[in-house]
Amino acid sequence: MTTPEKLIQMVIAIALFVGVMAAILLLTARLKSRNGERVQAVAFVGPALFLVAVGLLYPALKTAYQSFFGANGDNFVGFDNYVDIFTNSSLLTVLRNTMLWVLLVPTLSTFIGLVYAVLVDRSRFEKLAKALVFLPMAISLVGASIIWKFVYEYKGTENEQIGLLNGVLKALGFETYNFLFYAPWNTLFLIVILIWIQAGFAMTILSASIKAIPDDIVEAASLDGVSGLKMFFFITVPSIRPSLIVVLTTISIGTLKVFDIVQTSTGGRFDTSVLAYEYYFQYFVSLNQGLAAALAVVIFALVTPIIIYNVRQMRRLEAR
Amino acid sequence: MTTTPTPEPAMVEQTPGPETGRKKGSKSAASAARDGLSGRTASAISLVIALLWTLPTFGLFVSSFRPETDAKTTGWWNVVTDPSFTLDNYREVLSGEGNAGLMTFLVNTIVITIPGVLIPITLATLAAYAFAWMKFKGRDALFVAMFALQIVPIQVTLIPLLSLYTSPPFNLRPLAGRDAPAGGLYELWLSHAIFAMPLAIFLLHNFMREIPGELIESARVDGAGHVEIFTRIMLPLMAPAIAAFGIFQFLWVWNDLLVALVFSGPDVAPLTVKLVNLVGQRGEDWHLLSAGAFVSLVIPLAVFLGLQRYFVRGLLAGSVKG
């Protein structure tokens, strides 16, 4: 397809969509009886419900079912795929890496975001300072990975360096280091990329909730002689606990699904694979449908408790 | 969001005596906490963080303007002593030979993104209105179910969705594969709409519930139907919220790699897919990689900076609710 053709297709699709929606609204607008309102409700909710049922609910059930079948999806193998995930050594590495990601990314990005929010709060350059840290949020994970691959770029010590980190190492008189090559440390250097992206998210939300702490509490505390780090740990942190939890859980969920960074930086080589990447690899490269489905179900199983906890926290806040 | 007070204009806070008036001299929890570190240490730490967060991007940005040999052989920081810049890298990645240039992929990304934002937002706004203000049987149960579906990670859905697209039931026309309409664009639009739906409905519903119910009630008493209320009253009031989620969805679709890798054929692959391939094939060609990365960054960055206010509002509404 040529560029004009693509654009025309897009315009057609939008016109089609707008036309159908307008027709639905116009047709149901005249209905005012009790039954008519029922039709309206269906018209409003129906499309969304249909999409979600076909695109999320059905596939989730189907995948769970598929995970009990072999590589090509025909022969029933019971729990073999799951046994594989928890015994095969390379898959165990994947699990270990995923665990590292889920432990480190949420905690460190939240910590950095929190410290930074506190440090720049009401300073002269607050707006600019926040924008600088927030900016990586707009960058795609692919773009961010390229940015960091460039920072990590490796050349032998005797060569001129073009990667920033190895440039610094060489200038300080150390040997240069191939950051993305040696397991398990390379996983840590990939984790840095996601922390770099997520800290801005954490900072924005935590900063807003710090600003929302009532002045009286702070004043009362400082009258009692509380200040400095004590203020931070006994007043600031407890007051923003709900936001801290939301930030931690949101980032955890995002981390479990991270795929782009591994794909761009190392292509899953050098023992850097994680669950979300391994899923893609098993299905589209190794052509092992059953194992891929089982990996997807494991991600699902790991996300579920986090969401449930989140929902309960939300309910508790609403009940108050 | 509603609770966030505007920061006081006072730039540098003096250490107030205990008896200073509440409004003028009072300080925030953050600044009070910060006093533990001397002002200088605090600004040093924040400066270091700001630098660490800016320098990687800046380095790649500088590199994208350096001549090929310079970019490949010397560090970007050498521009300080030996500045030489060129636009050749951008010219090369944008044009390319035949259809290989990034321009084609940029168009693909745009074509994928615009319906990929419009469709889910329209459907989600309608559904959110119904969940918030229409009375029908099973409404709350359906809403909770919708919210709970946020649990489903995209990965879980990909395989069955792909087979639905390639061989749909009831003799429907396949959306993917060789004969797919619009080269397989429809499946991309549909997938992005599906994946956005639970969160979009949830966030927009929350916004909508904040609009006073009397407004709707009185409109109903005056004889307005739901469609009228929705288009005449709700849409204008909801504009900021819709904009906020629109930016969300825009960044998400624009930056997506997984959905595109799984569902798009080479004909309609977006920039992100092309960039990953570029890294694979020309991992050493930093002059091209850096320029390519910035071609993909410019538009989302512009949107983000221009509409930052809305975006942050959307972020906060979704996250620090209650």
UniProtKB/TrEMBL annotation, chain A:
Cited Gene3D superfamilies: MetI-like
Transmembrane segments: 6-29, 41-61, 99-119, 131-151, 188-210, 231-253, 291-311
Coiled-coil annotated residue ranges, if any: none
Segments forming domain ABC transmembrane type-1: 95-308
Protein name per its UniProtKB record: Alpha-glucoside transport system permease protein
UniProt topology in membrane: Multi-pass membrane protein
Annotated organism of origin: Nocardioides marinisabuli
Single GO BP term: transmembrane transport
From TrEMBL, chain B:
Pfam families recorded: BPD_transp_1 (PF00528)
One annotated Gene Ontology cellular component of this protein: plasma membrane
Domain ABC transmembrane type-1, first and last residues per copy: 106-307
CDD domains given in the database record: TM_PBP2
SUPFAM superfamilies: MetI-like
Entry membrane topology: Multi-pass membrane protein
Alphabetical keyword list: Cell membrane, Membrane, Transmembrane, Transmembrane helix, Transport
Compartments in which it is found: Cell membrane
Name the UniProt record assigns to this protein: Alpha-glucoside transport system permease protein
